[in-house]
């Protein structure tokens, strides 16, 4: 009889073998000092959760409950409001907008409230929180849980990961994609065929409608757009106005309908059926080259970590607090440290840098 993966993890640990998680490797590559505080000192007492580590937690649980018939879609909106109350109770704030406003908080709420009000669970056979254990080519072990796994009729699977963050772009796609690839490698090692890897980007939706791709075109065709939820009506406004006009709305009625739609971020009922709105599924390609790159990343990160002497704190420097822009000028980059790192408020390296950097900036700008 084949043993369960969790039994293998227990056996490995009993024999002194370290079993890693992707989040641990991510932390190691991001900031060795944070990894030192977290995984060497196990300094949980001084670790402070950030806004994004709290957001999505309860919503994730409700989404899991929906798939397992323990919750309904009606539970999503209260879960989001509860998350926001948790933040207020803990005194944890969203980052401020560039103008010092609460635009980031307001935007996140608008996105997620729209998601909660419109989400419908997918149909088919699914499993939630699927556990996996993966042995790398370098004989290292990683474990984790997969948010959502679709079981196809032929036994192959699709892997999905819930995300309440902004859409990934550029180098971020590859960086975050490695986690999906690890999930695939783990399931392939168990004998599964993985068809699709994807993120469910909850702040965005996929909208399909019949319209003109260009204003001067006479041909109408199917158009699909990816829209951040808070901007749904704003971005679709010209199309909605056109469809209202085709439904014999005059200019005054159109203006009234649009004002109400913008206020509630809901497409007017009379033309709502002409738009198909779905959660945005952002797929990630799975190739042999991508599998190889991920394996190299996993093994090299673990080997780097295990080569360090845990008795010497100087082996674990913080990430760089500055970068040089194209014009050659040094720029402060401490957003992660101040807003996302669990030790940002009590990091001696950050505090020393801020004290020094602030004083130098004041002198530089004096004249």
Number of strands: 9
Number of helices: 14
Low-confidence stretches: 361-367
Kindly name the structural category: alpha+beta
Q: What Rg do the Cα atoms give?
A: 24 Å
Separation of termini?
77 Å
Shape by Cα distribution: globular
Mean pLDDT: 92
- SSE sequence, one letter per element: HEHHHHHHEEEHEEHHHEHEEHH
Report the sheet with the most strands, covering strand number, pairing sense and barrel closure: 7 strands, mixed
Helix content: 40-55%
Strand content: 15-25%
Explain what you see.
The chain has 367 residues and is an alpha+beta fold. Among the domains are: 209-277, no CATH class; 318-367, no CATH class. It contains 14 helices and 9 strands. The strands form 2 sheets. Strands 1, 2, 3, 4, 5, 6 and 7 form a 7-stranded mixed sheet that branches. A hairpin with a 5-residue loop joins strand 8 (322-324) and strand 9.
Primary descriptors:
46% helix, 367 residues, alpha+beta
Summarize the structure.
With 367 residues, the chain is α+β, with helices and mostly antiparallel strands. The chain is 46% helix and 19% strand.
């Amino acid at each position: 009889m084949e043993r369960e993966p969790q039994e293998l993890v227990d056996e490995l640990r009993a024999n002194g073998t370290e079993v890693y998680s992707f989040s641990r490797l991510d932390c190691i590559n991001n900031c060795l000092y944070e990894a030192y505080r977290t995984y060497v000192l196990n300094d949980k007492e001084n670790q402070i959760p950030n806004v994004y580590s709290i957001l999505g937690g309860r919503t994730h649980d409700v989404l899991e409950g929906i798939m397992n018939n323990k919750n309904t879609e009606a539970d999503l909106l209260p879960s989001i409001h509860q998350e926001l109350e948790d933040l207020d109770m803990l005194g944890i704030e969203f980052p401020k907008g560039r103008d010092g406003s609460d635009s980031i908080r307001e935007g996140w709420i608008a996105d997620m409230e729209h998601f909660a009000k419109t989400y419908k669970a997918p149909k088919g056979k699914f499993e939630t929180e699927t556990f996996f254990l993966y042995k790398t080519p370098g004989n290292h072990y990683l474990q984790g849980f997969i948010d959502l796994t679709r079981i196809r009729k032929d036994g192959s699977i699709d892997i999905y990961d819930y995300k309440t963050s902004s859409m990934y772009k550029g180098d971020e796609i590859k960086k975050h994609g490695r986690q999906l690839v690890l999930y695939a490698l783990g399931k392939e090692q168990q004998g599964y065929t993985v068809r699709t890897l994807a993120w469910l980007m909850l702040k965005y939706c996929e909208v399909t409608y019949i319209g003109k791709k260009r204003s001067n075109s006479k041909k109408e065709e199917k158009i699909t757009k990816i829209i951040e939820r808070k901007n749904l009506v704003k971005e679709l406004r010209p199309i909605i106005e056109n469809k209202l006009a085709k439904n014999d709305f005059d200019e005054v009625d159109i203006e009234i309908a649009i004002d109400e739609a913008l206020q509630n971020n809901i497409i007017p009922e009379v033309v709502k059926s002409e738009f198909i709105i779905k959660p945005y599924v952002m797929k990630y390609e799975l190739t042999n080259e991508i599998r190889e790159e991920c394996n190299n990343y996993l093994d090299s990160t673990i080997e780097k970590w295990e080569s360090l002497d845990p008795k010497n704190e100087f082996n674990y420097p913080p990430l760089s607090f500055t970068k040089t822009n194209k014009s050659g000028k040094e720029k402060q980059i401490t957003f992660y440290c101040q807003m996302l790192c669990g030790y940002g408020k009590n990091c001696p390296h950050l505090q020393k840098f801020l004290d020094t950097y602030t004083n130098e900036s004041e002198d530089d700008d004096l004249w």
